[in-house]
Amino acid sequence: MYKQTISVIAAVMMLGISWIPAGAAAPSKVGFLVVAPDRGFLGNQEVRSLVDEFKKSYTATLGLAGRDYTGVEGEYAAYLIRAAHELKQAGATEIVAIPLFLSDADPLFKRVRPLLPAYTGGLPVRWAQAMAHDYLIGQIVLDRVGALSEHPESERLIVVATGALDSASEKAIRSDTEKLVEYVTRYKHFREAEAVVYYDREAENAEQKNQEIKAHLLAQMAKQGRTLLVPAFIGPKFDHSMSMASWLDDQFKQTHVAYKPEELLPHPNALLWLKKTANRETPLTAGQIGVVIMPHGSTQPWNDAVETTIQPLMAKYPIEMAYGMGDPKIIQDAVSKLEQRGIRRIIFVRMYALDHQMKPLTDYILGLSEQAPSDGHGEGHDHSATAPLQVRTAALFSTFGGYEQNPEIAQVLHKRIAELSKDPANETVLLLAHGEATDEGNDKWLAVISNNIDRLRKDPRWAKLKTIKALTVREDWPKEREKAVAGVRATIEEASKHGRVLVIANRLYGSGPYKKMLHGLTYEINEKGLVDPILTRWLEDGMIRLTAELIPSRNEQAAHAHP
Length: 563
Prior knowledge:
- The structure is a single chain.
- The protein is of the alpha/beta class and 563 residues long.
- It has helices at residues 2-15, 41-55, 77-89, 107-112, 135-146, 167-185, 206-221, 244-251, 268-281, 300-314, 328-340, 359-365, 409-418, 439-457, 460-463, 478-495, 514-517, 533-559; strands at residues 30-37, 60-65, 94-99, 125-127, 156-164, 192-199, 227-231, 258-259, 289-295, 319-321, 345-351, 396-401, 427-433, 467-472, 500-505, 524-526.
- The protein has a four-stranded parallel beta sheet, sandwiched between helices. A four-stranded parallel beta sheet has the order 6-5-7-8, with helices on both faces. Strands 10-9-11-12 form a four-stranded parallel beta sheet, sandwiched between helices.
- Helix 10 crosses helix 18.
- The model is unreliable at 1-26, 376-383 and 557-563 (pLDDT under 50).
């Protein structure tokens, strides 16, 4: 076998690299080498099926490395050399290696990692992160837990990983496994939850150490309440009975533990994780960028009015709507529709007044943040609350929001005032907005409106107004609303004694509950809101800006690939 391996190495090395002449301006092409543990017949079938699906969308191949991996001259060299050669034959000029390992600390992965360049015939190599770093893998464990759990508050969860060779690797793998436990406990609040790591059978004193782990688990299982045992590994799987998951099942058959021999594979999220990893490394084209727009949403007339600002962009960009206050299922549906159209990067637009509104919530749903907000407004975090669902997608996201912070909104306000005004010197104008729960947030909104008032005042016509003022009603928070509405009513009542009062609905469309809140007062109201072609420009400007940020950075890499 040794001579055969050396012959393979020599033959592949003789192929060399088809170097591009120095003056050529050819872009680099990334090939993905999925490096996976040799799991035996059935396990390798699962891995090959996964990689075959991945290859339908990306230039990719599979390289196996087994527990007996001994380095450059070992028997697994042939598999890694062949994998790199396949990528080179497909035109790859650089390799991104994707480790199909739970943890960067996996001892086998750590042996393969520094030696991979020896197999690539000179193609540059960089490594992606292992699986535990992505919430998509946490969702796999969450699904396994969901299939077992009945009453989490009275249950204990034990997530099991494998592969430790010594105390250092055990600690590091356990740390990565604890990330999965933490993810699960955002959604299910268990009596107890922990991660344990079994030692590889080749580790020194492995049998003794694993007996100690078993004793600990038995002691946990003997406590009051159900115990859930959930694998978080990609272990040996020669057949259905000769597998790591089945071995674990045998260890605790005589107990009352809740267990299913289901490892991290197979699961749909494994393919999403591969694709998402590849999307981070693959040059984008404009045709692979789509847009999800999230307005608040209301009745059909409200929605129709908002969509008049979006409609002119529909023919130019792949756009899906996700009405609501950060509804994960609606967002998932919009994202999935774009992915079905070949989209790999999504610009997510929070079509809300200020740039911070809905940002904590939607950043979490899109996987841009690990901090789960406690409510739909994204304020604070209650650790006893259940986190919102996160999208299951390979797409990557960029976001923007805050249409009222667009200086051109002052032009819309100008139109709305002009539609009511007759004698500015005898008129008080009140720009009335929704408002926020916190004083800090509410003050920020008032400051934004005040900036627009400053712009309006530069027009000689509006400089003549008796008063133009920003107010909010803080309508979703009863205590704050009562005080705010009382202030607005007092302002209108006093101003109406000395002239006309014009109320401008400083909201996207309509006047919401304003008429009910202001019943019995003397005033005139413009209910059209801020829907206007200026919003269309704001949307498109944001799309153009983020697209420009995404594509040139990739093109620069290609331009500098060949000095």
